[in-house]
Amino acid sequence: MKKVLTLIIIILFQHIIAAQEQPNIIILFADDAGYADFGFQGSTEMKTPNLDKLAQQGVTFTQGYVTDATCGPSRAGLITGKYQQRFGYEEINVPGYMSENSKFLADDMGLPLDQVTIADYLKTLGYKTAMYGKWHLGDADRFHPTKRGFDEFYGFRGGARSYFGYEEASSAHHDTKMERGFGNFEEPQRYVTDALADEAIAFMRKNKKNPFFIYLAFNAVHTPMEATEEDMNAFPDLTGKRKELAAMTLALDRACGKVLNKLKELGLDKNTIVVFSNDNGGPTDKNASLNLPLSGTKSNHLEGGIRVPFVMRWPKTIKKGSQYNYPISTLDLLPTFYVAAGGNSHDLTDVDGVDLIPYLQGTNKSRPHQTLFWKKEVRLAFREDDWKLIRFADRPAELYDLSTDIGEQTDLATTHPERVKSMFKKMFEWESTLDRPLWMLKRSFENYDIERMDRYRSPELIKNEIPSLLKD
């Protein structure tokens, strides 16, 4: 009997040690933020002391990419570690805006059930999992976060909502209502950005002795432009949408700071992987965000639509205050987390991302990705090393050398015809492996995306736009 008890104690002790060695994992994910709108990205207008400190404590990726220039597909790529076009999630899913010829419409547009999520993978390794905030991966019950690997959820199923609780929640569209768990609709009593941080903190307290994963997907700073009066008053020198954006960004930074401070208070900060990033480029015309020195905005394949602020901190593993300059992607988060949590990389036979840790530690000095792709209907961008070829719907393809031209102002297509031809072939080879889109927007929105791209086609055009952003 004593031997049995001793064996049980040893097994339990080994389990506790293993659990303690597994890092906690937190994704702090912003929505529609501008590339230039954080202190660690060079902004002198925005006040982001907590995120600036996070950047100083970890690694900043100068070429961090998302998988799409709009939020739904971008999140599908992040959460699966796969190009979302491979399983038909090519277009954003917004009920009421879609072509009636789509295979799926309304609530039926969502992350296919045969796709495995980050949360699914981490649960197999003993993690407690939670998702807070904006889901946007399907409104139907079968797509719900609690059915996609998450133990807890407080947020909304759709793509945008008010930052204040609805007084008449019954009249709101069901995918904008705040929901606790599954089917329990509960409007917040405070500003949503702050409320989401409080939920994450409560989960951390409850699971401080277990390895946990939190996907904290803020809807800040997506429209509607809504801020508290107190946060607005912190920017007396700004006006218009830019002032509102600054106030909303301040609230976002405060919420992230509360989570980071609680980690330290609980003694969990040294062995917690924290990632801060954003779902796509800022939509300058909608929320006054700035993507300088990049050209372009949300919804197009210029760098301003797909290159985002990107920070990772893991004190026991990543050198603080470092900078990583090769291209990486949100595709890489799933394999990085899974391997860090003790999983075997050979289990991940169907993902497109890579484990970033060997690259960050310098044991692998090559590029994590020789190629990266972005596709929306006929529009497609292909990056091969530092060369980027963009295929448009309404004009000839353009070629840029991003090592010397991150603003994409000097088209080299006519001077490198053989490279264009070679890249076109590779682009088509990749495209031929994809599923057809499961749903598509109405054609008129394709025109809108092109018009928006042209409006913000150069850094100079964007700078000329700034005075109007301060008036609106």
The major pleated sheet works out as: 10 strands, mixed
Helix tally?
14
> What kind of oligomer do you see?
single chain
Mean pLDDT: 94
Overall 3D form: globular
How far apart the termini lie comes to: 77 Å
Strand content: 5-15%
Query: Over all CA atoms, what is the radius of gyration?
Result: 22 Å
Structural class: alpha/beta
Low-confidence stretches: 1-17
Helix content: 25-40%
Strand order of the largest sheet: 7-6-5-4-8-1-9-10-2-11
SSE run: HEHEEHHEEEEHEHHEHHEEEHHEEEEHHH
Instruction: Count the beta strands.
Output: 16
Describe this structure in words.
Helix 2 crosses helix 7 (240-265) and helix 7 crosses helix 14 (459-471). It contains 14 helices and 16 strands. It is globular and about 60 Å long. It has helices at 2-21, 49-57, 71-80, 118-123, 192-206, 229-232, 240-265, 284-287, 303-306, 333-340, 357-361, 417-431, 443-455, 459-471; strands at 24-30, 59-61, 64-65, 128-134, 152-156, 179-180, 184-185, 212-217, 272-278, 311-313, 322-324, 328-329, 371-376, 379-384, 387-391, 398-401. The longest helix is centred in the middle third of the chain and has 26 residues, at 240-265. A hairpin with a 3-residue loop joins strand 6 (179-180) and strand 7. The protein is 32% helix and 15% strand. It is α/β, with parallel strands linked by helices. The model is unreliable at 1-17 (pLDDT under 50).
